[in-house]
């Protein structure tokens, strides 16, 4: 639900977005500190105020509806296109009201690439605000196919951006299946707009360039090696440039890629030169050919911004082609008659069995900044005091719960704990409850109990915090460290919460100083979002984001013991760490500073070894540098990474990485997956689900800006899919394991067919790129019969940490079944 409002230049103070945050309020519900608020970020960047995709011209469009009110009011469907917020479409309400669902169809009378629908509710009355919705696309107005988006909208007047994977279409249909406030069987809309190509292709993969050649209408070879071939060499420091020596070749200029075989192509990616601005392409078109002679009508076109970020364009339709021609008709800054490119790549539809696939985009009634997987097949999400912005210490939080079985999303405001839970620490407790600490109300702590669907307050922390790190300990207590974003800066020493008393115990022997990065902003940033891994006897390995690793002992007053560095890794703020096997972790991405520093492609493995000095090694690099990305361990021990930026800037979608990757511990290599439909950067999340799929969502929370992403989508990894996208057969449990299993117990299970492996994956809780709760524990087992097995749960609670786990069975091909939820400890 990005809010497109006049492209405001800055965000307001308290209540107006992300410009200010009251860090001094630690008192009762709704209280505010006497101290002036400190800035979270001085202002949202300019890129946050503009939608990533252009707002399409509505010239020549028409609108129709399943029904409309014309007897008692002029509530025709055509009103959604008239540019007047005080006129509206309304379902028929006079006489006998037309029952839900109601639908509204936009006919653009031409094919355009569309990536989102902007829904502006009526402002004169709440009646008819759309609640649950679905969006369908059609090229002919008759065949609609499956919904490309759906979900639940908040019951307010803000304009909602309903995103989906960019696709060429002529017709867009919005269907309302409920009224947001359940006030009656009505639907209404003041205005409908559509967003075009975001330049971020979705559900595609880069085509391999082996054997490709490139030619150009002209190229510079006399004064520099600026041949067309340079766009395919994988080196961003080399480039193609139009002829500039002597008499410069006039615009337009074109470069043509010959793939030397016919392939289906659906997107082109253009990387401008790095060295200087000259020749950046402005207006462009893309055409394709099977023979290199006859090029049809353009399949893409537009105008690229005059900056050095990587650009992409989505074709109006996937096309079979051997030749793809990019033609530049203007220079982006009008500096001269030049064109240039560092790299050009082509993408095509993904093979699901190799690259996975994405379900439709699901709308949430808030930006899911934090999420936790619950034992009852639901996903808990929350934002701040508001659904799309933060500010102050208001003492309440907007929450939502997604039913993973039905996809239904419900919203609730939590007031009773006096806690604005924005930017918190999170730990999933041994009984499946979720402990949330600090944030906007910096000393508060709250607990969500999925068994009763209730929130309650627990003891306040001794040290107010925000952006702190948490983990459960092997004895069931919870440990917290750092968090200078909220409360006073610095001195965020460790403390421990006891479930028996609900109180916190300070650890004076665990200062945060030795665990901090060298961020230029000092403690305010340097002690944020730490990577913590709990081990035996109440010990914790702090393995990032600082390059320095530390062992932390939480007994007594606590101690911190330096444990070497993470191989040759520098600080990696806003990267993350994932426990993919017993005593083995993978760290990914990050940057040397919280923002405005280049992210890294590097990944490292960290082995706990004998528990004294961890062994860190560099593994294969990711294809893309990422900061603000999220990583998830899968049942087979592979790790999936989503989103992030190559140059991290909070609230911006510039330099977004749209291609997920999966790391294989057997090879140390990353493999690109099908692209995402929506950027996932700052304030985004990802979680493994019990069915082996992965939820990725969120990003933004910057108020009146265009980078709020109040939605999410589920990624199906390739281990579940056939080449045609159908599901592979999966093993299934035919017995019901006990709800709770002790460490060291032998667990008998039966399955419907022979399986090759079993693993436990702890239910995770994610925020700000960090999920210290997730860990994978492969199980040893004895086969007691053809489909009966005895699984051995590790006896050490530092290995199988207490808590809720997803128990997976995997067949010989590595296909996981749907997990059974059990509690260990």
UniProtKB/TrEMBL annotation:
<dbReference type="InterPro" id="IPR011043">
    <property type="entry name" value="Gal_Oxase/kelch_b-propeller"/>
</dbReference>
<dbReference type="InterPro" id="IPR014756">
    <property type="entry name" value="Ig_E-set"/>
</dbReference>
<feature type="domain" description="F5/8 type C">
    <location>
        <begin position="42"/>
        <end position="197"/>
    </location>
</feature>
<dbReference type="Pfam" id="PF09118">
    <property type="entry name" value="GO-like_E_set"/>
</dbReference>
<dbReference type="InterPro" id="IPR006652">
    <property type="entry name" value="Kelch_1"/>
</dbReference>
<feature type="region of interest" description="Disordered">
    <location>
        <begin position="552"/>
        <end position="572"/>
    </location>
</feature>
<dbReference type="InterPro" id="IPR037293">
    <property type="entry name" value="Gal_Oxidase_central_sf"/>
</dbReference>
<feature type="compositionally biased region" description="Low complexity">
    <location>
        <begin position="42"/>
        <end position="51"/>
    </location>
</feature>
<dbReference type="InterPro" id="IPR008979">
    <property type="entry name" value="Galactose-bd-like_sf"/>
</dbReference>
<feature type="region of interest" description="Disordered">
    <location>
        <begin position="15"/>
        <end position="51"/>
    </location>
</feature>
<dbReference type="InterPro" id="IPR000421">
    <property type="entry name" value="FA58C"/>
</dbReference>
<feature type="domain" description="F5/8 type C">
    <location>
        <begin position="202"/>
        <end position="349"/>
    </location>
</feature>
<feature type="region of interest" description="Disordered">
    <location>
        <begin position="492"/>
        <end position="512"/>
    </location>
</feature>
<dbReference type="Pfam" id="PF00754">
    <property type="entry name" value="F5_F8_type_C"/>
</dbReference>
<dbReference type="InterPro" id="IPR015202">
    <property type="entry name" value="GO-like_E_set"/>
</dbReference>
<dbReference type="InterPro" id="IPR013783">
    <property type="entry name" value="Ig-like_fold"/>
</dbReference>
<feature type="compositionally biased region" description="Polar residues">
    <location>
        <begin position="552"/>
        <end position="562"/>
    </location>
</feature>
<protein>
    <submittedName>
        <fullName>Discoidin domain-containing protein</fullName>
    </submittedName>
</protein>
């Amino acid at each position: 639900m990005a809010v497109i409002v006049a492209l405001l230049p800055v965000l307001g103070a308290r209540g107006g977005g992300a410009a200010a945050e009251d860090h001094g309020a630690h008192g009762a519900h709704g209280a505010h500190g006497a101290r002036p608020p400190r800035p979270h970020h001085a202002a949202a960047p300019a890129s946050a105020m503009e939608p990533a995709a252009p707002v399409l011209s509505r010239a020549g469009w028409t609108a129709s509806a399943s029904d409309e009110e014309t007897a008692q009011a002029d509530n025709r469907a055509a009103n959604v296109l008239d540019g007047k917020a005080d006129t509206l479409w309304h379902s028929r309400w006079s006489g006998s009201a037309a029952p839900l669902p109601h639908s509204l169809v936009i006919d653009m009378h031409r094919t355009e690439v569309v990536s989102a629908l902007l829904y502006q509710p009526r402002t004169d009355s709440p009646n008819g605000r759309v609640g649950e919705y679905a969006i369908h696309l059609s090229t002919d107005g008759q065949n609609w196919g499956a919904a490309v988006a759906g979900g639940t909208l908040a019951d307010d007047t803000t304009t909602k951006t309903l995103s989906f994977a960019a696709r060429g279409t002529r017709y867009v249909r919005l269907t309302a299946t409920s009224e947001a406030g359940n006030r009656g069987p009505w639907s209404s809309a003041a205005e409908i707009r559509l967003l075009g190509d975001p330049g971020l292709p979705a559900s595609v993969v880069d085509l391999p360039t082996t054997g490709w050649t490139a030619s150009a209408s002209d190229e510079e070879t006399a004064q520099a090696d600026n041949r067309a071939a340079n766009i395919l060499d994988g080196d961003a420091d080399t480039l193609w440039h139009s002829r500039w020596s002597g008499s410069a070749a006039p615009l337009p200029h074109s470069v043509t890629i010959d793939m030397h075989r016919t392939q289906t192509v659906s997107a082109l990616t253009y990387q401008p030169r790095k060295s200087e601005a000259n020749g950046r392409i402005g207006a462009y078109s893309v055409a394709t050919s099977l023979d290199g002679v006859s090029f049809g009508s353009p399949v893409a076109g537009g105008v690229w911004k005059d900056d050095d970020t990587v650009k992409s364009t989505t074709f109006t339709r996937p096309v079979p082609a051997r030749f793809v021609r990019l033609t530049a008709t203007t220079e982006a800054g009008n500096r001269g008659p030049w064109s240039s490119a560092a790299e050009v790549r082509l993408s095509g539809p993904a093979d699901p069995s190799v690259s996975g696939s994405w379900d439709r985009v699901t709308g949430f009634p808030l930006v899911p900044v934090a999420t936790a997987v619950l034992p009852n097949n639901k996903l808990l999400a929350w934002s701040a005091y508001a659904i799309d912005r933060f500010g102050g210490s208001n003492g309440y939080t907007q929450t939502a719960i997604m039913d993973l079985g039905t996809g239904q999303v419900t919203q609730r405001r939590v007031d009773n704990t006096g806690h604005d839970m924005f930017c918190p620490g999170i730990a999933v407790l041994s009984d499946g409850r979720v402990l949330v600490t600090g944030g906007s109300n910096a000393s508060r702590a709250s607990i969500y109990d999925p068994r009763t669907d209730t929130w309650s307050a627990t003891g306040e922390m001794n040290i107010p915090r925000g952006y702190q790190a948490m983990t459960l300990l092997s004895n069931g207590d919870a440990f917290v460290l750092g968090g200078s974003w909220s409360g006073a800066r610095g001195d965020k020493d460790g403390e421990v919460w006891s479930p028996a008393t609900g109180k916190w115990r300070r650890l004076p022997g665990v200062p945060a100083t030795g665990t901090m990065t060298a961020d230029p902003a000092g403690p305010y940033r340097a002690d944020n979002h730490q990577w913590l891994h709990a081990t035996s006897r109440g010990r914790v390995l702090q393995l990032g984001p600082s390059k320095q690793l530390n062992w932390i002992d939480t007994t007594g007053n606590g101690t911190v013991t330096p444990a070497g560095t993470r191989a040759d890794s520098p600080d990696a703020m806003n990267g993350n760490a994932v426990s993919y096997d017993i005593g083995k972790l993978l760290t990914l991405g990050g940057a040397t500073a919280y923002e405005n520093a280049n992210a890294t492609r590097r990944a490292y493995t960290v082995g706990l070894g004998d528990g004294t000095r961890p062994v860190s090694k560099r593994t294969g690099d990711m294809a893309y540098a990422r900061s603000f990305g999220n990583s998830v361990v899968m049942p087979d021990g592979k790790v999936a990474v989503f989103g992030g930026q190559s140059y991290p800037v909070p609230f911006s979608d510039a330099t977004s990485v749209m291609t997920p990757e999966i790391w294989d511990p057997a090879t140390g290599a990353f493999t690109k997956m099908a692209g995402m439909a929506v950027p996932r950067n700052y304030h985004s999340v990802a979680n493994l689900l019990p069915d082996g799929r992965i939820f990725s969502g969120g990003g933004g929370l910057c108020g009146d800006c265009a980078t709020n992403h109040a939605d999410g989508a589920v990624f199906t990894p390739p281990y579940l899919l056939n080449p045609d996208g159908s599901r592979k057969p999966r093993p299934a449990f035919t017995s019901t394991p006990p709800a709770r299993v002790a460490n060291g117990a032998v667990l008998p299970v039966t399955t419907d067919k022979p399986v090759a492996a079993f693993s436990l994956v702890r239910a995770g809780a994610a925020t700000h790129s960090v999920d210290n709760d997730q860990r994978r524990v492969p199980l040893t087992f004895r086969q007691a019969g053809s489909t009966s097995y005895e699984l051995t749960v590790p006896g050490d609670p530092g290995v199988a940490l207490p808590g809720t786990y997803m128990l997976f069975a995997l067949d010989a091909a590595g296909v996981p079944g749907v997990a059974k939820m059990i509690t260990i400890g």
